[in-house]
Q: What sequence folds into this?
């Protein structure tokens, strides 16, 4: 079955209060684009064209105004409401009907990925018929994340959520490729002491049966979690530096759709006209000239 995408853009964004008291975190700007453009781009780079976007009921109209139904990028969006944030694994319960047994790739709405070779590792993960694939990223403060432990042969032996003594420096990023059993597995786990359905418990099921792969992202990759004011600013500066120095966009669904053949030249021209004289519109016009 064709793999489908899940984009989790719900939650309260409380770590960013008061900024997010009146607007969803995933609608905030990362330099010249809304935050949600970046995880959408990751799913598109993985070849995924059917995406469920999970939002709060209050924020959904704003997301729909921004993104429409996806046809401008040759994809389709299904809108799913999250009444209350009850853990990352809840996303699989909310999208059970949408997935209809299909394998999935879930990306958290505040995660940004960048690096040479990113499409290749995404397609490799997407091509796995069974089990799950997650991505490990070397960090200096692993105690803030879910962390993977490995044996002498490099196989993952456990994943520990925010350990006081981390078993490694590899944090598990907010990108999960799981097979069609994910909703059924999520339905069997119980809330953690903090009252949430933890994604770590779902991953542990796959690990225990020996079907969880951890792909380590090397030095050439960047992973940014934009959930705090400092990391939000860092991400914007990172994107600005890359774009201004190289003249290439980071996280452009329009350019990705065009280069993958999901929209034609006329479709990209329409998008360039929509964004008019903005720097983003100028970039799309430049893609057409090239």
A:
């Amino acid at each position: 079955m064709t793999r489908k995408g899940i984009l989790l853009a719900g939650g309260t964004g409380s770590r960013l209060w008061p900024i997010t008291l009146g607007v969803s975190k995933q609608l905030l700007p990362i330099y010249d684009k809304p935050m949600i453009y970046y995880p959408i781009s990751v799913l598109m780079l993985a070849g995924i064209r059917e995406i469920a976007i999970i939002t709060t009921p209050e924020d959904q109209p704003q997301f729909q105004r921004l993104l429409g139904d996806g046809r401008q990028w040759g994809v389709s969006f299904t809108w799913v409401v999250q009444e209350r944030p009850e853990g990352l694994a809840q996303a699989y319960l909310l999208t059970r009907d949408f997935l209809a047994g299909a394998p999935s790739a879930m990306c958290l709405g505040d995660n940004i990925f960048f690096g040479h070779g990113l499409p290749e590792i995404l397609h490799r993960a997407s091509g796995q018929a069974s089990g799950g694939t997650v991505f490990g990223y070397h960090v200096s403060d692993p105690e803030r994340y879910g962390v993977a432990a490995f044996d002498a042969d490099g196989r993952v032996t456990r994943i520990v959520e925010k350990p006081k003594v981390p078993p490694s420096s590899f944090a598990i990023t907010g990108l999960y490729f799981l097979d069609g059993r994910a909703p059924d597995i999520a339905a069997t786990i119980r809330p953690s002491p903090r009252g949430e359905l933890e994604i770590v418990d779902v991953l542990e099921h796959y690990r225990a049966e020996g079907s969880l792969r951890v792909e380590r992202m090397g030095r050439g990759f960047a992973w940014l979690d934009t959930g705090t004011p400092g990391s939000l600013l860092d991400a914007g500066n990172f994107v600005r530096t890359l774009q201004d120095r190289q003249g290439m966009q980071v996280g452009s669904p329009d350019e990705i759709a065009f280069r993958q053949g999901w929209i034609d030249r006329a479709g990209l021209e329409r998008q360039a006209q929509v964004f008019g004289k903005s720097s983003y519109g100028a970039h799309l016009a430049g893609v057409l000239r090239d």
Notes: The chain has a mean pLDDT of 93. The longest strand covers residues 170-178.
